[in-house]
Amino acid sequence: MSALPGSAGPPGTGPAPPVHGVGLPSPAERGATVIPDKVVARIAARAARTAQSRLAALPPDPSQSAAPSASAASLTGSVRLHLVLELPYPIDIPQVCARIQHDVAERVAQLTGLHVGEVALTVRRLVTGAGANRGRVR
User: pTM for the whole thing?
Assistant: First the structure.
């Protein structure tokens, strides 16, 4: 009786090694997927915008608030991110920033498979609501 590829052999011998596709090198010989820093930065900026809009009620007028920008520096499976964004005023800045950092790190790791070692965040400016631009109150 012959065993099928990948099935167990005679009792006590253990499972047979997995069969690779014909003509394909083993996974260890195929190399690695490299994600450029520019792509990681774009993923981080998009994740920051999502977290920013969910956690901090942004002004309804998109012209008042610029989209977050990001840069990334990766080294051997780990990445450091730097985000620059705007937040509405008033807001609990430390709490919202910590949550955005966490959400961005989680999302980048999920989509790229990289370990996010650091997420530095710079708040470019605080954006007031539309009602604050009405002028001075006398």
Answer: 0.70
- Cis, bond preceding 27 (omega within 30 deg of 0): no
Instruction: Give the pair of three-digit tokens for residue 120.
Output: 């530095």
Report pLDDT digits (tens) over 80-118. Answer: 999 999 998 889 999 999 999 999 999 999 999 999 999
Beta bridge partners of 96: none
The DSSP symbol for 90 reads S
| Strand-pair partners of 12 | none
Q: What is the DSSP string of 54-71?
A: HHS---S-GGGSPPPEEE
Q: What is the rounded distance in angstroms from the CA atom of residue 138 to the CA atom of residue 11?
A: 92
Q: Which amino acid is at 52?
A: Q
Q: Which of 114, 50, 58, 57 is CA-nearest to residue 81?
A: 114
